[in-house]
Amino acid sequence: MKQMERESSVRNELAVTGLMKALVYLAPGQMKLEDRPKAALIEPSDAVVKMIKTTICGTDLHIMKGDVPSCSPGRILGHEGVGIVESIGSGVSQFKIGDHVLISCITSCGKCDFCRRQMYSHCTTGGWMLGNTIDGTQAEFVRIPYADNSLYHAPVGVDEEALVMLSDIIPTGFEKGVLNGKVKPGGTVAIVGAGPIGQGVVLTAQFFSPAKIIVIDLDDNRLNVALKLGATDVINNRDGQAVAKVMALTGGLGVDTAIEAVGMAASFETCQAIIGVGGVIANIGVHGEKVDLELNRLWDRNISITTGLVDTESTRMLLSIVKSGKIDPSLLVTHHFKLADIVSAYETFGQASKTHALKVIIEA
Ligand SMILES: [Zn+2]
Ligand SMILES: [Zn+2]
């Protein structure tokens, strides 16, 4: 039976057994908190998780703008969160009912060729599914396919809001920014964009003790947060002088690592203008438009450019680090809402320059 038919037959069955509240994407610019059939097991490798806390990602705003064609109207949004295992399929061996779990934004079978290469985001039957091609976490319950590989045991005693940051933004900043960008002791790092992902880079770049962490943005509030999280220098580019200022800070050399954490042509161009000889430009941002590559200036500078969607291969390690108290991702949380008020949470998160929102926590 096709997945969609199977899902809808399960929905029909469940219409009698219970409903749940869920935030549903209806059309570009339109969403609604609706009553939906409670999430249920479909495959033996599934688990159903009762959500405790979830959040809204910049990617959800892209969906709401209609920028993500893979996400069709009617989809429950959300790909981050923590919860409690409510039920498990017969094939799940690593989790039991009642376990506290962190949900990974990436669903992975653990067995296909890409999974064997730790490129879980390219899992041939998984990847970024939650709140995209299957119903997501902004609901009272969520079905998690390949639960053994896509859930993590929540360490005892760790703040749940800190854990929510490990579903997506901290692994994304660390893997696609810090690791891809080869941040090294004594090196210089520039992060273009001080949103949640950029702040995740600020936190995790410090694992490698770079000499400088320079953060560029247009919002003073976000730059102040970056300073609190460990940035050594911040630059407000409202005057368009960021490139000159980075050059001044690096003795005219440019940086060893330039991390693009916005997803716009202008921010990638800034990275190309500030990258030093032998450096790495690590792109994290989601780009909707084409960007010019200035090979005429870069061809002889021994640089590399990296791209990628988070694979979450670092999640286990990041859980240990957060448990040890070395970093506190809960510092990124600025607002709290109940699931009943999630539409206001979207408004607050969507107007970040006015509301100073970074991450909003939504309690199911
Ligand atoms: Zn996300
Ligand atoms: Zn796979």
Q: What does it look like?
A:
The protein is built from 14 helices and 16 strands. It is α/β, with parallel strands linked by helices. It has two domains: 3-168 and 312-363, Alpha-Beta Complex (Quinone Oxidoreductase, Chain A, domain 1); 170-306, Rossmann fold. The strands form three sheets. Strands 3, 5, 6, 7, 8, 15 and 16 form a seven-stranded mixed sheet that branches. It has a six-stranded parallel sheet with strand order 11-10-9-12-13-14, with helices on both faces. It has a three-stranded antiparallel sheet with strand order 2-1-4, covered by helices on one side. Helix 6 (169-179) packs across helix 7. The radius of gyration is 21 Å and the shape is globular. Mean pLDDT is 95; it is low at 9-15. The protein binds zinc ion (ZN) (2 copies). Residues 57, 59, 79, 105, 168 line the site of one zinc ion.
**Could you give the order of the helices and strands?**
HEEEHEEEHEHEHHEHEHEHEHEHEHEHHE
Quickly count the domains: 2
How many DSSP H or I helices?
A: 14
* Annotated CATH architecture of the largest domain: Alpha-Beta Complex
Shape: globular
Q: Helical content, roughly?
A: 25-40%
Number of strands: 16
Q: CATH topology of the largest domain, anyone?
A: Quinone Oxidoreductase, Chain A, domain 1
The whole-angstrom Rg is 21 Å
CATH class descriptor of the largest domain:
Alpha Beta
| Overall pLDDT confidence | 95
- The percentage of residues in β strands lies in 25-35%
Catalogue the ligands. zinc ion
